[in-house]
Amino acid sequence: MDGIPVSELDDLFGSVANELRISILRELWDRYGEPVSFTELQSRVGVRDSGQFNYHLNVLVPEFVRKTEEGYVLTHTGKQTIGAAVSGYFSTEDVEVDSVRAGECMFCGEELTARYEGGNVVIDCSACENLITKMPVPPVTVASTPRENLPQVLGKHVLTLAHQLSRGFCTLCHGRVDSTLTVRSDEESVAYRAALDVKFECRACGDRTHLNAGAVVVDHPAVASFLFDSGIDPRETYPWELLPLLDPETTITSEDPLELELTVRTDGGALKLTLDDAANVVAYARR
Ligand SMILES: [Zn+2]
Ligand SMILES: [Zn+2]
Prior knowledge:
Distance between the termini: 41 Å
Bound molecules: zinc ion
Radius of gyration: 23 Å
Protein name: ArsR family transcriptional regulator
InterPro entries: DUF7347, DUF7351, WH-like_DNA-bd_sf, WH_DNA-bd_sf
């Protein structure tokens, strides 16, 4: 499927592109889901002309605002619009962070640094010059985090996005995504040595993204329990420090359909995983 054509979203964008309509959304938001009557909403927004107020309110119904017997409430899309506005409150230029310590380099063992520039978190090693990861993170996430906690919070954010994708949801629109195991693309977003990565494409908005195979399987209980038994808690470890997972031994066991064997090694032993062409773990065994 090609997704929903963006040209068809004009009406939807137009519906909220008005100060009065935004005030209506904000008033309803402040009531935490409690229905608000027409008269009360009108007086809160401060519009004398009922006809004018009614017109603008109706533009928001039914996508953003729902009319119930008790009054008006925000729909899920209405709430998401507020969320998007909050998320976009800070511009990427307002939020810049340079060089926070972010753990050890998986290639050379020297110290890594994390910085935030142009809307991306960049983690790289100044000693061996390897780019470890570069991922988009909303400025609001960075702005609401004290500097010293930034690497931990970014690690959790990266893991959350990986879980969301590996569980099949688009990180932008929450539509369903299809995953395909693929030969490594040369885009810069993830620069691990793993031979293969996983491509995701959203059926609804068409967004395309990719992660290395190790980051996708970390959500599997066999992997999480193996790491945990080896003394590694993925929630408390920087994802970019999960060397045994992100740089595992990989063997292509079948070309068509593509099938991959991935061995994760820790001091506690080895875990062998078999991935099908959609990056599902189809078999696993501890060694
Ligand atoms: Zn290094
Ligand atoms: Zn999407």
